[in-house]
Design a protein that fits this description.
Elements: H1 2-12, E1 15-20, H2 26-41, E2 45-48, E3 77-81, H3 93-98, E4 101-106, E5 117-120, H4 127-137, H5 144-157, H6 168-179, H7 184-193, H8 197-209, E6 211-213, E7 218-223, H9 225-231, H10 239-244, E8 251-259, E9 262-269, H11 275-280, E10 285-286, E11 290-296, H12 299-312
Parallel strand pairs: 1-2, 1-3, 3-4, 4-5, 7-8
Antiparallel strand pairs: 6-7, 8-9, 9-11, 10-11
Helix pairs in contact: 2-4, 2-5, 4-5, 5-6, 5-7
The structure holds guanosine-5'-monophosphate (5GP) and manganese (II) ion.
Guanosine-5'-monophosphate binds near residues 108 and 290.
Length: about 325
Amino acid sequence: MTLDNIKDEIYNAKNIVILTHDIPDGDAIGSSLAMYIGLKQIGKDVDVVIPKYSKTYAFLPSAEEIKEKGRNENYDLAIALDCGDIKRLNGFANYFEDANSKISIDHHEANTMFADYNYVNPTAPACCQILIIVLKALGIEITKEIGTCLLTGIITDTGGFKYQSVKAETFEFAAELLNRGVNVSSIYKKVLQTVPIEKFELRKIAMNRLELLEDGKIAFTYITRKDEEETKSEDHDGIVEMGRDIEGVEVSIFLREVGDDEYKISLRSNDYVNVSDICLLFNGGGHIRAAGGNISLPFEKAKEKIVMECKNNLK
Ligand code: 5GP
Ligand code: MN
């Protein structure tokens, strides 16, 4: 069974690198740090490599130990967390590819099974929820520090326990973490409630540009690199959800300029549109109600194309 293989690989490895997807969210960083603290607890020589992340997560235990780069020599073992596709490991895929052994632990619907050992559960609302099981199987004690990282991932990936992916067991796991001293209200406030001024300014721009198309069933907005420069914020978390939360909207589209005629797509849906399927057409993937992709076209053409694909999925 994969979990047994994962246990063997981790116990046999001397040095380990932990990697996650680019533009890492709370689940990506939370699962990486929980795994990092856990592996240190059992005496492993481990690096957690995340080149750039939002300062929202700087409060997490051991965040100060995150490295921007890995080592020059190959690692015995690489562990990819919360990442459905090796392409999303981006600039650091080499640490993964060059490692002697490769593990992926993930919850993405469209996971491409890119590792030697893939422990993937698309029904888990967060990678952090899967990690509770994995860490316990490894004999790692779930300390308050590990629990804080894990609950952060569960809170961010469930929008604060409100998505359809939340099951009774999510609360059971959360209860277990609370019993270890984790402070749910403080984490919630830090990761979902408090908005830095720069982020608020960026959000305001996206909000002012938000359009409702197709009889209000599609919401569309975007931000440019110039907006990010002017507001000094690259934190676009929550923008695509503003469109999704408008009454009558079925799909919310958010385009973010990342290069010349290059856009990152974020999609969210409410009741029936499978946005993971739509994003597969745009070199991306994700979950049924939250997915992302990439498009290389001038803005108006990019907008037209993504709106058309979303429109084709409306009832
Ligand atoms: P977001 O819109 O927040 O960037 O991403 C929503 C979901 O889609 C996340 O679960 C994320 O992991 C996934 N996702 C976003 N961009 C991509 C992409 O380019 N490729 C794949 N495979 N998944 C993506
Ligand atoms: Mn996740």
